[in-house]
Design goal:
Layout lengths: L8 E6 L3 H6 L7 E5 L9 H14 L6 E4 L8 H11 L3 E4 L5 H7 L5 E5 L2 H5 L1 H5 L4 E6 L1 H8 L11 H13 L3 E4 L8 H14 L3 E4 L5 H8 L3 H19 L5 E3 L2 E3 L1 H18 L6
Parallel strand pairs: 1-2, 1-8, 2-3, 3-4, 4-5, 5-6, 6-7, 7-8
Antiparallel strand pairs: 9-10
Helix pairs in contact: 2-3, 9-10, 11-12
């Protein structure tokens, strides 16, 4: 599943907000996380679980729907996982993941998305990403910053090592790395800046907490028509050189190597994925 879809924007939706869940169906995010954990108060956990069950069973979703369950060792973990498994979730998001062995022991037969939001999680990210069945890693920067005792910074300097560690772990294992949420839903400029930074660091997309943040994430992590045209032109130059028996290809005065060809093909794949008609799941 992870290789066949785009993960530019992944929207968190509180499980106790049934109206918000219904609206999420058509907001344009590439995936949705129905949240049973931090976004839901303890007294609302049971109702949130039922809301999510009904939404999943109703079907009609055009994007993957993941469920963030309550963590290992909590009183809600088993009921959450059983509901998600029986109701057709596309994957489970595991909060505060720190132990690769505990993840491997789950053996649920459903894609697992591990949240890296503690110092131990960062240090064990490579082992967690390598577990069969783990589809991707998500950064939980709010909890991580609190655990590290860092202060806020517009360029996230205190977290750069941790962010890169998550990307390295995910990419080394062939998994999907997703960047953390941006908290200020009124700061469009800050969101755009952080999206650009996340893509530069190597993330595949961004988790978002408000519908108004989806477009910025899609733009930052997507491919434009102009970029797709540029990729086709570079590949054309490469293929022409090869057909002519040349050992070296150039495009716009620059040497074209295999890495440039691979990058161009990646862009065209992403372009095709983000522009193909949505299928109903």
């Amino acid at each position: 599943m992870t290789a066949s879809i785009v993960w530019r924007s992944v929207l968190y939706v509180p499980g106790d907000k049934s109206r918000a869940i219904e609206k999420a169906r058509g907001l344009g995010a590439d995936a949705v996380i129905l949240d049973l954990e931090d976004a839901v108060a303890p007294e609302a956990k049971a109702q949130a679980r039922e809301n999510v069950r009904l939404a999943l069973r109703a079907g009609g979703w055009r994007v993957p729907v993941l469920v963030r369950v309550n963590g290992l060792g909590t009183e809600h973990e088993h009921a959450d996982r059983e509901m998600a498994l029986l109701s057709g979730a596309a994957g489970l998001v595991l909060p505060k993941t720190e132990d690769a062995r505990a993840v491997a022991a789950l053996s649920l037969g459903l894609p697992l998305w591990a949240m890296i939001e503690t110092p131990a999680g960062v240090l064990n990210a490579a082992a967690i990403a390598a577990v069969p069945g783990v589809a991707g890693l998500l950064v939980g920067a709010n909890d991580l910053a609190r655990a590290l005792r860092t202060g806020p910074h517009p360029e996230r300097l205190p977290l750069l090592h941790a962010l890169s560690a998550v990307v390295l772990a995910a990419r080394a294992a062939g998994k999907v790395p997703l960047d953390a949420v941006f908290n200020d839903i009124t700061d469009g400029e800050g969101l755009a800046r952080e999206c650009a930074q996340g893509r530069m660091l190597g993330f595949a997309g961004k988790t978002v907490i408000h519908p108004g943040q989806i477009a910025a994430a899609n733009a930052a992590y997507g491919v434009t028509a102009a970029q797709a045209d540029e990729a086709r032109a570079l590949l054309g130059a490469w293929e022409t050189a090869r057909a002519e028996g040349k050992s070296v290809a150039t495009y716009r005065g620059s040497l074209v190597e295999q890495m440039h060809v691979d990058a161009a093909r990646d862009n065209l794949t992403l372009w095709a994925q983000q522009t193909q008609p949505e299928s109903t799941s």
